[in-house]
Amino acid sequence: MATTTSAPPTTTHEMSSNKETSPAENKLAPVVSSTESAKAQIHYVTGVRLVLLVASVSLITFLLLLDQSILATAIPKITSQFHSLPDIGWYSGVYQLAAAALQPLSGKIYTYLKLKHVFLFHLFLFELGSLICGVANSSSMLIGGRTLAGLGSAGLMNGGLNIIVNSTPLEKRPLYTGIMIGIGQMGLVTGPLIGGALTEHVTWRWCFYINLPIGAITAAMITLIHIPEPTSKAPYSLSLLRDLVLHKLDLPGFAIFAPSCIMLLLALQFGGDGSHAWSSATVIGLFVGAGVLAIIFIAWEARVGEKAMIPGVLFKNRIMLAAIGQQFGLSVCVFIGALWVPTYFQSVKGAGPTESGVDTLPQVLSQVLFAVVSGIAVSKLGYYLPWAVFSGAALAVGNGLMSTLDQYSSKGKWIGVLIVVGAGRGSGMQMSLIASQAVLPARLISVSLALLIFLQNLTAAIFLVVANAIFTQSLIKKLAQYAPSVSPQAAFKAGSSSDAVRKLVAPDRPWELEGVLDAYSESLRNIWLMMVAFASLAFLFAFGMGWIDVRKKKGSQSAKEVQDSEQGITGEREKEEV
Protein backbone atom coordinates (compact mmCIF):
# COMPACT_ATOMS: atom_id res chain seq x y z
CA MET A 1 0.00 0.00 0.00
CA ALA A 2 2.99 2.31 0.20
CA THR A 3 2.73 5.18 -2.22
CA THR A 4 6.12 6.79 -1.77
CA THR A 5 9.66 5.78 -2.54
CA SER A 6 12.95 7.04 -1.20
CA ALA A 7 15.48 8.80 -3.36
CA PRO A 8 19.05 7.49 -3.25
CA PRO A 9 21.23 8.96 -0.48
CA THR A 10 22.89 12.29 -1.10
CA THR A 11 26.06 12.00 -3.14
CA THR A 12 29.59 12.89 -2.07
CA HIS A 13 29.53 15.88 -4.40
CA GLU A 14 26.38 17.19 -2.72
CA MET A 15 27.86 16.68 0.77
CA SER A 16 31.01 18.56 -0.11
CA SER A 17 28.95 21.37 -1.60
CA ASN A 18 26.95 21.60 1.60
CA LYS A 19 30.08 21.70 3.76
CA GLU A 20 31.41 24.65 1.77
CA THR A 21 28.23 26.67 2.34
CA SER A 22 28.95 29.93 4.11
CA PRO A 23 27.09 31.34 7.13
CA ALA A 24 25.61 33.95 4.84
CA GLU A 25 24.27 31.24 2.59
CA ASN A 26 22.83 29.31 5.53
CA LYS A 27 20.90 32.40 6.50
CA LEU A 28 19.61 32.79 2.98
CA ALA A 29 18.68 29.23 2.09
CA PRO A 30 15.70 27.50 3.68
CA VAL A 31 17.93 24.59 4.73
CA VAL A 32 18.37 24.06 8.45
CA SER A 33 21.93 22.77 8.23
CA SER A 34 24.35 21.03 5.91
CA THR A 35 24.24 17.91 8.06
CA GLU A 36 20.49 17.64 7.83
CA SER A 37 20.64 18.31 4.12
CA ALA A 38 23.15 15.56 3.61
CA LYS A 39 21.15 13.04 5.59
CA ALA A 40 17.74 13.96 4.30
CA GLN A 41 15.98 11.61 1.96
CA ILE A 42 13.16 12.73 -0.33
CA HIS A 43 10.15 10.43 -0.42
CA TYR A 44 8.68 10.86 -3.88
CA VAL A 45 4.99 10.39 -4.69
CA THR A 46 4.11 7.28 -6.69
CA GLY A 47 1.15 5.20 -7.86
CA VAL A 48 -2.41 6.47 -7.81
CA ARG A 49 -1.46 9.51 -5.76
CA LEU A 50 1.01 10.60 -8.39
CA VAL A 51 -1.60 10.15 -11.14
CA LEU A 52 -4.08 12.29 -9.19
CA LEU A 53 -1.43 14.90 -8.44
CA VAL A 54 -0.36 15.25 -12.09
CA ALA A 55 -4.02 15.32 -13.16
CA SER A 56 -4.67 18.11 -10.65
CA VAL A 57 -1.86 20.42 -11.75
CA SER A 58 -2.62 19.66 -15.42
CA LEU A 59 -6.25 20.70 -14.96
CA ILE A 60 -5.20 23.90 -13.22
CA THR A 61 -2.78 24.69 -16.05
CA PHE A 62 -5.61 24.02 -18.52
CA LEU A 63 -7.83 26.51 -16.66
CA LEU A 64 -5.08 29.14 -16.54
CA LEU A 65 -4.45 29.06 -20.28
CA LEU A 66 -8.17 28.70 -20.99
CA ASP A 67 -8.71 31.91 -19.04
CA GLN A 68 -6.37 33.76 -21.40
CA SER A 69 -8.40 32.97 -24.52
CA ILE A 70 -11.95 32.01 -23.49
CA LEU A 71 -13.20 35.62 -23.38
CA ALA A 72 -12.47 36.28 -27.05
CA THR A 73 -15.91 35.05 -28.13
CA ALA A 74 -17.75 36.15 -24.96
CA ILE A 75 -16.72 39.82 -24.91
CA PRO A 76 -19.39 41.02 -27.41
CA LYS A 77 -22.16 39.68 -25.12
CA ILE A 78 -20.50 41.12 -22.00
CA THR A 79 -20.08 44.59 -23.48
CA SER A 80 -23.68 44.55 -24.73
CA GLN A 81 -25.03 43.64 -21.27
CA PHE A 82 -22.91 46.17 -19.36
CA HIS A 83 -22.81 48.84 -22.13
CA SER A 84 -19.05 48.86 -21.61
CA LEU A 85 -17.38 48.89 -25.03
CA PRO A 86 -14.51 51.13 -23.77
CA ASP A 87 -13.66 48.51 -21.11
CA ILE A 88 -12.96 45.67 -23.56
CA GLY A 89 -9.20 45.93 -23.20
CA TRP A 90 -9.36 45.82 -19.42
CA TYR A 91 -11.11 42.45 -19.21
CA SER A 92 -7.94 40.72 -20.36
CA GLY A 93 -5.48 43.50 -19.55
CA VAL A 94 -5.93 43.63 -15.77
CA TYR A 95 -5.59 39.83 -15.58
CA GLN A 96 -2.21 40.01 -17.35
CA LEU A 97 -1.09 43.02 -15.29
CA ALA A 98 -1.83 41.37 -11.96
CA ALA A 99 -0.30 38.04 -12.94
CA ALA A 100 2.88 39.49 -14.43
CA ALA A 101 3.54 41.87 -11.53
CA LEU A 102 3.34 39.15 -8.87
CA GLN A 103 4.91 36.20 -10.74
CA PRO A 104 8.60 36.62 -9.83
CA LEU A 105 7.75 37.28 -6.18
CA SER A 106 5.68 34.09 -6.06
CA GLY A 107 8.82 32.11 -6.91
CA LYS A 108 10.56 33.58 -3.88
CA ILE A 109 7.56 32.79 -1.68
CA TYR A 110 7.60 29.15 -2.80
CA THR A 111 11.27 28.98 -1.80
CA TYR A 112 10.59 29.74 1.86
CA LEU A 113 7.01 28.64 2.62
CA LYS A 114 5.23 25.29 2.38
CA LEU A 115 4.56 24.48 -1.26
CA LYS A 116 1.08 23.07 -0.73
CA HIS A 117 -0.08 26.02 1.37
CA VAL A 118 1.17 28.66 -1.07
CA PHE A 119 -0.36 26.83 -4.04
CA LEU A 120 -3.76 26.48 -2.34
CA PHE A 121 -3.71 30.16 -1.35
CA HIS A 122 -3.15 31.21 -4.96
CA LEU A 123 -5.85 28.78 -6.09
CA PHE A 124 -8.27 30.32 -3.57
CA LEU A 125 -7.60 33.80 -5.00
CA PHE A 126 -8.08 32.53 -8.55
CA GLU A 127 -11.35 30.81 -7.65
CA LEU A 128 -12.66 33.80 -5.69
CA GLY A 129 -11.85 36.10 -8.60
CA SER A 130 -13.64 33.74 -11.00
CA LEU A 131 -16.70 33.68 -8.74
CA ILE A 132 -16.81 37.48 -8.58
CA CYS A 133 -16.60 37.63 -12.39
CA GLY A 134 -19.41 35.10 -12.71
CA VAL A 135 -21.81 37.03 -10.47
CA ALA A 136 -20.69 40.49 -11.61
CA ASN A 137 -23.51 43.00 -12.09
CA SER A 138 -21.31 45.75 -13.53
CA SER A 139 -18.24 46.16 -15.67
CA SER A 140 -16.27 47.50 -12.69
CA MET A 141 -17.11 44.40 -10.65
CA LEU A 142 -16.01 42.18 -13.53
CA ILE A 143 -12.70 44.04 -13.81
CA GLY A 144 -12.17 43.67 -10.05
CA GLY A 145 -12.77 39.93 -10.29
CA ARG A 146 -10.35 39.62 -13.19
CA THR A 147 -7.71 41.45 -11.15
CA LEU A 148 -8.11 39.06 -8.22
CA ALA A 149 -8.04 36.03 -10.53
CA GLY A 150 -4.85 37.38 -12.11
CA LEU A 151 -3.19 37.68 -8.71
CA GLY A 152 -4.11 34.08 -7.99
CA SER A 153 -2.88 32.83 -11.35
CA ALA A 154 0.55 34.37 -10.71
CA GLY A 155 1.55 31.47 -8.47
CA LEU A 156 -0.33 28.56 -10.03
CA MET A 157 1.66 27.70 -13.15
CA ASN A 158 5.04 27.77 -11.42
CA GLY A 159 3.40 26.22 -8.36
CA GLY A 160 2.23 23.27 -10.43
CA LEU A 161 5.73 22.87 -11.86
CA ASN A 162 7.17 22.99 -8.34
CA ILE A 163 4.76 20.26 -7.25
CA ILE A 164 6.05 18.02 -10.06
CA VAL A 165 9.65 18.89 -9.16
CA ASN A 166 9.13 18.02 -5.50
CA SER A 167 7.08 14.88 -6.13
CA THR A 168 9.17 13.13 -8.81
CA PRO A 169 12.86 12.40 -9.43
CA LEU A 170 14.61 14.44 -12.12
CA GLU A 171 14.62 11.65 -14.70
CA LYS A 172 10.81 11.31 -14.56
CA ARG A 173 9.95 15.01 -14.58
CA PRO A 174 10.05 15.46 -18.37
CA LEU A 175 7.14 13.03 -18.80
CA TYR A 176 4.91 14.64 -16.18
CA THR A 177 5.91 18.17 -17.16
CA GLY A 178 5.08 17.31 -20.77
CA ILE A 179 1.64 16.06 -19.75
CA MET A 180 1.00 19.21 -17.72
CA ILE A 181 2.16 21.59 -20.48
CA GLY A 182 0.40 19.63 -23.23
CA ILE A 183 -2.97 19.59 -21.48
CA GLY A 184 -2.52 23.23 -20.49
CA GLN A 185 -1.91 24.34 -24.06
CA MET A 186 -5.17 22.66 -25.06
CA GLY A 187 -6.88 25.32 -22.96
CA LEU A 188 -5.19 28.08 -24.92
CA VAL A 189 -6.24 26.81 -28.35
CA THR A 190 -9.74 25.58 -27.38
CA GLY A 191 -10.63 28.66 -25.32
CA PRO A 192 -12.48 30.54 -28.09
CA LEU A 193 -14.41 27.38 -29.01
CA ILE A 194 -15.46 26.69 -25.41
CA GLY A 195 -16.21 30.35 -24.77
CA GLY A 196 -18.35 30.60 -27.89
CA ALA A 197 -20.30 27.44 -27.03
CA LEU A 198 -20.97 28.56 -23.44
CA THR A 199 -21.93 32.09 -24.48
CA GLU A 200 -24.21 30.90 -27.27
CA HIS A 201 -25.95 28.00 -25.51
CA VAL A 202 -25.83 28.89 -21.78
CA THR A 203 -24.47 32.28 -20.65
CA TRP A 204 -21.16 34.12 -20.75
CA ARG A 205 -20.99 33.78 -16.95
CA TRP A 206 -20.10 30.11 -17.36
CA CYS A 207 -16.80 31.22 -18.89
CA PHE A 208 -15.92 31.96 -15.26
CA TYR A 209 -18.10 29.44 -13.41
CA ILE A 210 -16.31 26.61 -15.24
CA ASN A 211 -13.26 27.30 -13.05
CA LEU A 212 -15.12 26.67 -9.79
CA PRO A 213 -15.92 22.91 -9.81
CA ILE A 214 -12.62 21.96 -11.45
CA GLY A 215 -10.69 24.14 -9.01
CA ALA A 216 -12.56 22.69 -6.02
CA ILE A 217 -11.83 19.10 -7.07
CA THR A 218 -8.18 19.96 -7.63
CA ALA A 219 -7.90 21.68 -4.25
CA ALA A 220 -9.37 18.62 -2.52
CA MET A 221 -6.93 16.22 -4.18
CA ILE A 222 -3.88 18.38 -3.46
CA THR A 223 -5.00 18.86 0.15
CA LEU A 224 -5.23 15.10 0.73
CA ILE A 225 -1.93 14.15 -0.95
CA HIS A 226 1.38 14.65 0.84
CA ILE A 227 3.78 16.75 -1.25
CA PRO A 228 7.46 16.36 -0.31
CA GLU A 229 9.61 19.37 0.52
CA PRO A 230 13.23 18.97 -0.67
CA THR A 231 14.48 21.56 1.82
CA SER A 232 13.58 22.10 5.47
CA LYS A 233 11.28 25.08 5.98
CA ALA A 234 10.70 26.90 9.22
CA PRO A 235 7.30 26.60 10.95
CA TYR A 236 4.94 29.55 10.70
CA SER A 237 5.60 32.21 13.32
CA LEU A 238 5.86 35.96 13.74
CA SER A 239 9.64 35.71 13.59
CA LEU A 240 9.39 33.89 10.23
CA LEU A 241 7.04 36.58 8.92
CA ARG A 242 9.41 39.31 10.09
CA ASP A 243 12.38 37.51 8.52
CA LEU A 244 10.55 37.12 5.20
CA VAL A 245 9.44 40.74 5.06
CA LEU A 246 12.74 42.27 6.14
CA HIS A 247 15.32 39.94 4.63
CA LYS A 248 14.24 37.15 2.31
CA LEU A 249 11.47 38.22 -0.07
CA ASP A 250 13.21 41.30 -1.49
CA LEU A 251 10.10 43.46 -1.13
CA PRO A 252 12.00 46.63 -2.13
CA GLY A 253 12.85 44.90 -5.41
CA PHE A 254 9.21 43.91 -5.84
CA ALA A 255 8.12 47.51 -5.15
CA ILE A 256 10.33 48.65 -8.04
CA PHE A 257 9.58 45.75 -10.39
CA ALA A 258 5.77 45.73 -10.15
CA PRO A 259 5.21 49.37 -11.25
CA SER A 260 7.72 48.92 -14.09
CA CYS A 261 5.91 45.83 -15.35
CA ILE A 262 2.49 47.46 -15.00
CA MET A 263 3.55 50.60 -16.88
CA LEU A 264 5.00 48.53 -19.73
CA LEU A 265 1.84 46.48 -20.11
CA LEU A 266 -0.37 49.58 -19.82
CA ALA A 267 1.60 51.27 -22.60
CA LEU A 268 1.11 48.20 -24.79
CA GLN A 269 -2.57 48.05 -23.84
CA PHE A 270 -3.27 51.73 -24.59
CA GLY A 271 -1.31 51.78 -27.83
CA GLY A 272 -2.55 48.41 -29.02
CA ASP A 273 -6.29 48.97 -28.50
CA GLY A 274 -6.24 52.36 -30.21
CA SER A 275 -7.43 54.31 -27.15
CA HIS A 276 -4.19 56.32 -27.30
CA ALA A 277 -1.83 56.99 -30.19
CA TRP A 278 1.60 55.37 -29.92
CA SER A 279 3.07 58.88 -30.11
CA SER A 280 0.83 60.24 -27.32
CA ALA A 281 2.35 61.64 -24.15
CA THR A 282 0.58 58.96 -22.11
CA VAL A 283 2.04 56.00 -24.00
CA ILE A 284 5.52 57.52 -24.30
CA GLY A 285 5.48 58.47 -20.62
CA LEU A 286 4.55 54.93 -19.61
CA PHE A 287 7.32 53.44 -21.76
CA VAL A 288 9.89 55.87 -20.32
CA GLY A 289 8.72 55.24 -16.75
CA ALA A 290 8.88 51.48 -17.28
CA GLY A 291 12.40 51.75 -18.70
CA VAL A 292 13.71 53.96 -15.89
CA LEU A 293 12.29 51.69 -13.20
CA ALA A 294 13.66 48.63 -15.02
CA ILE A 295 17.17 50.12 -14.88
CA ILE A 296 16.75 50.89 -11.16
CA PHE A 297 15.46 47.36 -10.57
CA ILE A 298 18.45 45.78 -12.33
CA ALA A 299 20.84 47.91 -10.25
CA TRP A 300 19.04 46.97 -7.04
CA GLU A 301 19.01 43.26 -7.84
CA ALA A 302 22.75 43.38 -8.59
CA ARG A 303 23.35 45.07 -5.25
CA VAL A 304 21.49 42.52 -3.11
CA GLY A 305 22.95 39.49 -4.95
CA GLU A 306 21.42 36.08 -4.35
CA LYS A 307 18.88 37.54 -1.93
CA ALA A 308 17.30 39.31 -4.90
CA MET A 309 13.80 38.47 -6.12
CA ILE A 310 15.43 37.46 -9.43
CA PRO A 311 19.00 36.45 -8.48
CA GLY A 312 21.59 37.62 -10.99
CA VAL A 313 23.36 34.27 -10.70
CA LEU A 314 20.66 32.80 -12.95
CA PHE A 315 21.91 34.93 -15.82
CA LYS A 316 25.53 33.85 -15.28
CA ASN A 317 24.68 30.26 -16.09
CA ARG A 318 25.15 29.53 -19.80
CA ILE A 319 22.54 26.76 -19.90
CA MET A 320 19.98 28.92 -18.09
CA LEU A 321 20.58 31.77 -20.54
CA ALA A 322 20.10 29.41 -23.47
CA ALA A 323 16.91 28.06 -21.86
CA ILE A 324 15.57 31.62 -21.52
CA GLY A 325 16.33 32.33 -25.19
CA GLN A 326 14.70 29.09 -26.32
CA GLN A 327 11.62 29.79 -24.18
CA PHE A 328 11.41 33.32 -25.59
CA GLY A 329 11.35 32.14 -29.20
CA LEU A 330 8.88 29.32 -28.59
CA SER A 331 6.52 31.50 -26.53
CA VAL A 332 6.01 33.84 -29.48
CA CYS A 333 5.16 30.89 -31.74
CA VAL A 334 2.85 29.19 -29.25
CA PHE A 335 0.79 32.13 -27.97
CA ILE A 336 0.63 34.15 -31.19
CA GLY A 337 -0.13 31.09 -33.29
CA ALA A 338 -2.91 29.95 -30.97
CA LEU A 339 -4.81 33.20 -31.54
CA TRP A 340 -4.16 33.73 -35.27
CA VAL A 341 -4.72 30.22 -36.65
CA PRO A 342 -8.51 30.45 -36.00
CA THR A 343 -8.45 33.84 -37.75
CA TYR A 344 -7.19 32.15 -40.92
CA PHE A 345 -10.02 29.62 -40.87
CA GLN A 346 -12.72 32.21 -40.20
CA SER A 347 -11.63 35.15 -42.33
CA VAL A 348 -10.01 33.32 -45.26
CA LYS A 349 -11.64 29.87 -45.35
CA GLY A 350 -15.11 31.05 -44.26
CA ALA A 351 -15.51 28.81 -41.19
CA GLY A 352 -17.75 29.74 -38.27
CA PRO A 353 -16.44 29.97 -34.67
CA THR A 354 -17.28 26.35 -33.84
CA GLU A 355 -16.04 25.00 -37.15
CA SER A 356 -12.76 26.91 -36.86
CA GLY A 357 -12.25 25.35 -33.44
CA VAL A 358 -12.77 21.90 -34.93
CA ASP A 359 -10.36 22.74 -37.77
CA THR A 360 -7.57 23.39 -35.25
CA LEU A 361 -7.90 19.88 -33.76
CA PRO A 362 -5.03 18.40 -35.84
CA GLN A 363 -2.75 20.96 -34.25
CA VAL A 364 -4.14 20.36 -30.74
CA LEU A 365 -3.89 16.57 -30.94
CA SER A 366 -0.39 16.70 -32.43
CA GLN A 367 0.67 19.14 -29.74
CA VAL A 368 -0.54 16.96 -26.87
CA LEU A 369 0.85 13.78 -28.46
CA PHE A 370 4.34 15.24 -28.91
CA ALA A 371 4.31 16.79 -25.43
CA VAL A 372 3.74 13.32 -23.95
CA VAL A 373 6.02 11.45 -26.39
CA SER A 374 8.91 13.88 -25.88
CA GLY A 375 8.45 13.63 -22.12
CA ILE A 376 8.57 9.83 -22.25
CA ALA A 377 11.62 9.91 -24.51
CA VAL A 378 13.54 12.27 -22.23
CA SER A 379 12.63 10.18 -19.18
CA LYS A 380 13.80 6.97 -20.88
CA LEU A 381 16.83 8.21 -22.85
CA GLY A 382 17.83 11.08 -20.60
CA TYR A 383 18.54 13.87 -23.09
CA TYR A 384 16.27 16.87 -23.64
CA LEU A 385 18.53 18.70 -26.13
CA PRO A 386 17.42 16.76 -29.27
CA TRP A 387 13.78 17.61 -28.56
CA ALA A 388 14.55 21.29 -27.99
CA VAL A 389 16.36 21.39 -31.34
CA PHE A 390 13.58 19.44 -33.09
CA SER A 391 10.96 21.80 -31.68
CA GLY A 392 12.60 24.91 -33.14
CA ALA A 393 13.15 23.21 -36.50
CA ALA A 394 9.58 21.89 -36.72
CA LEU A 395 8.11 25.29 -35.85
CA ALA A 396 10.32 27.06 -38.38
CA VAL A 397 9.26 24.62 -41.11
CA GLY A 398 5.62 24.54 -39.97
CA ASN A 399 5.19 28.32 -39.85
CA GLY A 400 6.98 28.59 -43.18
CA LEU A 401 4.39 26.23 -44.63
CA MET A 402 1.61 28.22 -42.92
CA SER A 403 2.72 31.24 -44.94
CA THR A 404 1.79 29.36 -48.13
CA LEU A 405 -1.85 28.81 -47.09
CA ASP A 406 -4.54 30.83 -48.83
CA GLN A 407 -8.24 30.61 -49.69
CA TYR A 408 -7.59 27.77 -52.15
CA SER A 409 -5.49 25.53 -49.88
CA SER A 410 -6.84 21.99 -49.67
CA LYS A 411 -7.96 20.35 -46.46
CA GLY A 412 -5.19 17.79 -46.69
CA LYS A 413 -2.56 20.51 -46.95
CA TRP A 414 -3.60 22.56 -43.94
CA ILE A 415 -4.12 19.45 -41.82
CA GLY A 416 -0.56 18.36 -42.59
CA VAL A 417 0.82 21.81 -41.84
CA LEU A 418 -1.02 22.00 -38.50
CA ILE A 419 0.34 18.59 -37.48
CA VAL A 420 3.90 19.84 -38.06
CA VAL A 421 3.24 23.05 -36.09
CA GLY A 422 1.63 21.09 -33.24
CA ALA A 423 4.61 18.73 -33.11
CA GLY A 424 6.96 21.69 -32.73
CA ARG A 425 4.92 23.29 -29.98
CA GLY A 426 4.35 20.12 -28.01
CA SER A 427 7.92 18.87 -28.07
CA GLY A 428 9.65 22.06 -26.94
CA MET A 429 7.83 24.13 -24.34
CA GLN A 430 8.84 21.99 -21.34
CA MET A 431 12.50 21.55 -22.33
CA SER A 432 13.70 24.89 -20.96
CA LEU A 433 12.03 24.01 -17.65
CA ILE A 434 13.79 20.64 -17.58
CA ALA A 435 17.15 22.25 -18.43
CA SER A 436 16.89 24.70 -15.53
CA GLN A 437 16.11 21.87 -13.10
CA ALA A 438 19.07 19.86 -14.38
CA VAL A 439 21.69 22.51 -13.65
CA LEU A 440 20.40 24.61 -10.74
CA PRO A 441 20.49 23.79 -7.01
CA ALA A 442 17.17 23.12 -5.28
CA ARG A 443 17.00 26.54 -3.62
CA LEU A 444 16.96 28.29 -7.03
CA ILE A 445 14.48 26.07 -8.86
CA SER A 446 11.32 27.86 -7.65
CA VAL A 447 12.76 31.24 -8.61
CA SER A 448 13.95 30.00 -12.01
CA LEU A 449 10.57 28.46 -12.84
CA ALA A 450 8.79 31.68 -11.86
CA LEU A 451 11.20 33.65 -14.06
CA LEU A 452 10.62 31.40 -17.09
CA ILE A 453 6.83 31.55 -16.70
CA PHE A 454 6.96 35.34 -16.26
CA LEU A 455 9.07 35.77 -19.40
CA GLN A 456 6.68 33.49 -21.28
CA ASN A 457 3.67 35.62 -20.35
CA LEU A 458 5.46 38.94 -20.87
CA THR A 459 6.62 37.79 -24.31
CA ALA A 460 3.05 36.85 -25.21
CA ALA A 461 1.71 40.23 -24.07
CA ILE A 462 4.30 42.18 -26.06
CA PHE A 463 4.15 40.21 -29.29
CA LEU A 464 0.37 40.01 -29.39
CA VAL A 465 0.51 43.77 -29.88
CA VAL A 466 3.35 43.45 -32.40
CA ALA A 467 1.50 40.79 -34.41
CA ASN A 468 -1.67 42.88 -34.45
CA ALA A 469 0.28 45.91 -35.69
CA ILE A 470 1.91 43.83 -38.45
CA PHE A 471 -1.47 42.48 -39.54
CA THR A 472 -3.30 45.82 -39.55
CA GLN A 473 -0.57 47.71 -41.42
CA SER A 474 -0.32 44.94 -44.00
CA LEU A 475 -4.10 44.74 -44.41
CA ILE A 476 -4.30 48.47 -45.16
CA LYS A 477 -1.81 48.08 -48.01
CA LYS A 478 -3.24 44.83 -49.38
CA LEU A 479 -6.85 46.05 -49.42
CA ALA A 480 -5.76 49.13 -51.36
CA GLN A 481 -4.00 46.80 -53.82
CA TYR A 482 -6.60 44.03 -54.24
CA ALA A 483 -9.95 45.61 -53.23
CA PRO A 484 -9.66 49.41 -53.43
CA SER A 485 -13.36 50.02 -52.81
CA VAL A 486 -13.18 48.36 -49.37
CA SER A 487 -12.35 50.71 -46.51
CA PRO A 488 -9.65 49.42 -44.10
CA GLN A 489 -11.46 51.21 -41.25
CA ALA A 490 -14.62 49.28 -42.10
CA ALA A 491 -12.60 46.05 -42.08
CA PHE A 492 -11.11 46.80 -38.65
CA LYS A 493 -14.51 47.67 -37.23
CA ALA A 494 -16.16 44.56 -38.70
CA GLY A 495 -13.66 42.10 -37.21
CA SER A 496 -12.40 38.86 -38.72
CA SER A 497 -15.40 36.55 -38.56
CA SER A 498 -16.49 34.82 -41.76
CA ASP A 499 -19.70 36.82 -42.20
CA ALA A 500 -18.09 40.15 -41.31
CA VAL A 501 -15.28 39.75 -43.85
CA ARG A 502 -17.65 38.75 -46.66
CA LYS A 503 -20.04 41.63 -45.92
CA LEU A 504 -17.23 44.08 -46.62
CA VAL A 505 -17.81 43.52 -50.33
CA ALA A 506 -20.59 45.61 -51.87
CA PRO A 507 -23.43 43.54 -53.44
CA ASP A 508 -22.76 45.16 -56.82
CA ARG A 509 -19.02 44.29 -56.72
CA PRO A 510 -18.92 40.52 -55.92
CA TRP A 511 -15.70 40.07 -57.89
CA GLU A 512 -13.82 41.95 -55.13
CA LEU A 513 -14.36 39.14 -52.62
CA GLU A 514 -11.39 37.25 -54.01
CA GLY A 515 -9.25 40.36 -53.55
CA VAL A 516 -10.41 40.80 -49.95
CA LEU A 517 -9.57 37.18 -49.12
CA ASP A 518 -6.17 37.56 -50.77
CA ALA A 519 -5.55 40.67 -48.68
CA TYR A 520 -6.35 38.79 -45.46
CA SER A 521 -4.28 35.71 -46.33
CA GLU A 522 -1.25 37.78 -47.37
CA SER A 523 -1.51 39.89 -44.20
CA LEU A 524 -1.56 36.70 -42.14
CA ARG A 525 1.46 35.51 -44.11
CA ASN A 526 3.56 38.25 -42.52
CA ILE A 527 2.66 36.94 -39.06
CA TRP A 528 3.66 33.39 -40.00
CA LEU A 529 6.98 34.69 -41.34
CA MET A 530 7.57 36.58 -38.10
CA MET A 531 7.09 33.30 -36.25
CA VAL A 532 9.57 31.58 -38.60
CA ALA A 533 12.16 34.08 -37.35
CA PHE A 534 11.39 33.37 -33.69
CA ALA A 535 11.28 29.62 -34.23
CA SER A 536 14.73 29.88 -35.82
CA LEU A 537 15.88 31.83 -32.77
CA ALA A 538 14.61 29.05 -30.50
CA PHE A 539 16.37 26.51 -32.72
CA LEU A 540 19.72 28.31 -32.33
CA PHE A 541 19.41 28.82 -28.56
CA ALA A 542 18.52 25.15 -28.11
CA PHE A 543 22.08 24.13 -28.99
CA GLY A 544 23.33 25.93 -25.87
CA MET A 545 21.06 24.08 -23.44
CA GLY A 546 23.63 21.41 -22.60
CA TRP A 547 24.08 17.72 -23.44
CA ILE A 548 22.97 16.48 -20.03
CA ASP A 549 21.57 13.10 -19.01
CA VAL A 550 18.73 13.83 -16.57
CA ARG A 551 18.66 10.18 -15.50
CA LYS A 552 21.82 10.83 -13.47
CA LYS A 553 21.52 12.49 -10.09
CA LYS A 554 22.53 16.10 -10.37
CA GLY A 555 25.05 15.88 -7.58
CA SER A 556 26.95 13.00 -9.19
CA GLN A 557 26.80 14.24 -12.76
CA SER A 558 30.12 14.67 -14.49
CA ALA A 559 28.92 16.84 -17.36
CA LYS A 560 31.10 19.91 -17.71
CA GLU A 561 28.03 22.16 -18.03
CA VAL A 562 26.77 21.17 -14.59
CA GLN A 563 30.19 21.63 -13.01
CA ASP A 564 30.48 25.09 -14.56
CA SER A 565 27.02 25.91 -13.25
CA GLU A 566 27.89 24.90 -9.70
CA GLN A 567 31.20 26.79 -9.83
CA GLY A 568 29.49 29.92 -11.09
CA ILE A 569 26.96 29.85 -8.26
CA THR A 570 29.63 29.15 -5.65
CA GLY A 571 31.75 32.01 -6.97
CA GLU A 572 28.81 34.37 -6.71
CA ARG A 573 28.27 33.43 -3.05
CA GLU A 574 31.96 33.89 -2.25
CA LYS A 575 31.88 37.41 -3.69
CA GLU A 576 28.87 38.22 -1.52
CA GLU A 577 30.67 37.04 1.61
CA VAL A 578 33.63 39.34 0.90
From TrEMBL:
Membrane topology recorded in Swiss-Prot or TrEMBL: Multi-pass membrane protein
Composition bias type Polar residues, residue spans: 13-24, 556-568
Pfam short name (any one): MFS_1
Keywords: Membrane, Transmembrane, Transmembrane helix
SUPFAM superfamilies: MFS general substrate transporter
Record field: transmembrane: 50-76, 118-137, 143-163, 175-196, 208-228, 249-271, 277-300, 321-341, 414-435, 447-471, 527-548
Top-rank taxon: Eukaryota
Bias (Low complexity) ranges: 1-12
Residue ranges constituting the Major facilitator superfamily (MFS) profile domain according to the UniProt record: 53-550
A GO CC term assigned to this protein in UniProt: plasma membrane
Region (Disordered): 1-28, 554-578
Cell compartments where the protein resides: Membrane
A molecular function (GO) term: transmembrane transporter activity
Recorded family membership: Belongs to the major facilitator superfamily. TCR/Tet family.
Name of the protein in its database record: Major facilitator superfamily (MFS) profile domain-containing protein
Organism: Pseudopithomyces chartarum
